[in-house]
């Protein structure tokens, strides 16, 4: 008899991460009753309530019921997957209430498993959201910012072997333009991912600015690379939840991140719902 847990163990070098993603997608199809989803939505810190405005939730699945998914490890995240109707388009969004962060120590395969599962479930677009520190003084807490590019400081990649992927337009210019149709005031910037889980030091923030960064956080870039490998079109949106270290006059805390997200929930939720609605309608 095959040991299912072993087969789905992404830390096992012998495991095929794409086969594990196919197995996870099969469970999602069975539990939701639909053959495919169209758009994947990853809700980062501060974005938890946003998924409620995308459309009616037609099915909810506990992460732990899906191969190689884990319960939420961060306060303010939800450990469920939801199948959500995108308005009256007849299309479905696969909404992740949490993500696996690199600092959790489960490996890069686990970090990008949700993305690969979304692709296996039929998605052609993914919207990656996060809560982050802002490096520009004009971005007050609660400001959503489009990601135009990234700098990956994790020293890791989801690509294995001689797999060469062009990241020139990783964060889709088309989707960023679509988002600006919804909110013309949206600014954009370069997202810098650190390993975490400690917040960045003021010196590290100065380094990020020198390198061309505008936003700092602990997620997103590895997922975006995996999404490009899988052929997904990527839209990245950061919610500035605090000024970064050395810019902020006060110590950083995760509670501040949660509170900023709650304060901006209505604006961010409506933005996300309208953007996903346009994507779902084939715009």
UniProtKB/TrEMBL annotation:
Phosphate binds at residues 45, 77, 99-101, 131, 219. It comes from the Bacteria. Its EC number is 2.4.2.1. PANTHER family: METHYLTHIOADENOSINE/PURINE NUCLEOSIDE PHOSPHORYLASE (PTHR11904), PURINE NUCLEOSIDE PHOSPHORYLASE-RELATED (PTHR11904:SF9). Keywords: Glycosyltransferase, Transferase. It is an enzyme of class 2 (transferase). Homotrimer. The keyword Lyase does not apply. This is Purine nucleoside phosphorylase. It comes from Phycicoccus duodecadis. InterPro entries: Nucleoside_phosphorylase_d, Nucleoside_phosphorylase_sf, PUNP, Purine_phosphorylase. The purine nucleoside phosphorylases catalyze the phosphorolytic breakdown of the N-glycosidic bond in the beta-(deoxy)ribonucleoside molecules, with the formation of the corresponding free purine bases and pentose-1-phosphate. Cleaves guanosine, inosine, 2'-deoxyguanosine and 2'-deoxyinosine. GO terms for molecular function: purine-nucleoside phosphorylase activity. Coiled coil: none annotated.
